[in-house]
Amino acid sequence: MKKWLAPARSRRLRAAQRLALKAAYYSGALHAYRGARRARIHGLTVLMYHSIGGSDLLGPGLAVSVKNFAGQLEYLARSFDIVPLDSAVGMLRAGAPIPDNTIALTFDDGFRDNYEAAFPLLKRYGAPAAMFVATQPLTDGISLWPYRLRFLFKKTQARELRLNWPRTTVGRGAFNLASARKRRRAVDALEPALIAAVPSERERMLAEIARGLGVDVTSDPADEAPILTAEQLKILSAGDIEIGSHTVTHPALSSLSCTDAAEELTASKKTLEAALGRRVRFLAYPFGASQHFNAEVEDLTQKAGYEAALTTVPGVNGRSADLFAIKRLGVYDDPPAIFAFKLSRWFA
Fold first, then answer.
1. Domain extents for the chain?
2. How distant, in Å, are the alpha carbons of 132, 170, 297, 308 from that of 160?
3. To pair with 331 at 20 to 30 A between CA atoms, which of 121, 211, 239, 312?
4. Which tens digits make up the pLDDT trace of 161-197?
5. DSSP label of 45
6. Mean pLDDT across the stretch 211-234?
7. Phi and psi (nearest 5°) for 331?
């Protein structure tokens, strides 16, 4: 009986916590709490979104529902000074004290719902933002490889996958695929090996996975998670949305040779500039954790003509921040009460 009671008790506790947070949020108590700590909120906060209202293919760390995004945005507009990314970078470049509660919004990967769902809400609240686009979907018409990987596992009917990759983190692996959770675990186990691979080798690995899963290697989630079109990018760029680069093929730049990394940086920049008719000044490193870029990559980024680059390293940026290693906070699919609480805890 105890095995059944523990999960129920845990669920009741989580439900009670969420209810308390909602009560604090809607009564104004959470806002008052955060306001009391206003003097401690120093530096530039950059939030990182991906898809808004997107496919369940993406998961809660990559897709925020339209309802929750609207609530989050309403809270941010009421509680923070949302500034354009170029203004935020200008503050960091100047090295002057950054006003309290300064925040910038960013979106990675170039999902079409950024235009269809996020853009109207950003306009409603007068919130500027930056969107970072990898260009392979624009030029080659295929989805980015992390989403093709997820899609292969969504399509498969296989109960097991066996791989022999001795020179990778996978090694000789057998993955149980009997449930959706186990398939997600298999994706999580395989992704680091693909991140570390150069693009040509990664495509070979994806093809091997597809064969092992009994799925057509050309399977693409373009219908489930479509990307921005060139015309939509132009409209966004004309509507106070900064368009930045996210490379060509979404590699971990630190895993590439200097020549290949430079090509990813320059080719994506040129493609976007040709489509937009204006300079592309900012980059978001794919994956963006500390192991996915380094001083050499920062130098290549600067030489490619970018003015700043953003990471996924969590944190708030002080006035001495490295312009080519700007920190960000990832946003989950949380209702506004939970979202506000997480921000208040971060700044506390």
1. 37-140+226-347, 145-219
2. 36, 15, 38, 44
3. 239
4. 999 998 888 988 899 999 999 999 999 999 999 999 9
5. E
6. 94
7. -105, 135
Q: Which residue has the higher pLDDT, 54 or 302?
A: 302
What distance in Å separates the CA atoms of residue 339 and residue 341, rounded to the nearest whole number? 5
Question: Which residues, at least 6 apart from 138, have a Cβ–Cβ distance to it below 8 Å?
Answer: 227, 228, 229, 230, 271, 275
Res 33: pLDDT: 45
Single-letter amino acid code for the residue at 239: G
Kindly report whether the global pTM for this prediction surpasses the value 0.85: yes
Distance CA 120, CA 114 (A): 9
Helix locations, the chain, DSSP H:
2-27, 29-36, 66-79, 85-94, 113, 119-124, 136-140, 145-155, 180-196, 199-213, 230-238, 258-276, 295-303, 336-347
**pLDDT > 90? residue 203:** yes
- Residue 241, token pair as written in the block: 């949305």
Specify the amino acid at residue 303. Answer: K
Give the span between the Cα atoms of 174 and 13, in whole angstroms: 37
Alpha-carbon distance 197 to 213, whole Å?
A: 20
**Burial of 266 from C-beta contacts in 10 A (0-12 / 13-18 / 19+):** middle
CA distance 6 to 223: 41
CA–centroid distance for 245 within its chain: 13
Instruction: Give CA–CA dist 279/282, Å, rounded.
Output: 9
Residue type, position 255, single letter = S
Residue 289 to residue 183: CA distance in whole angstroms: 24
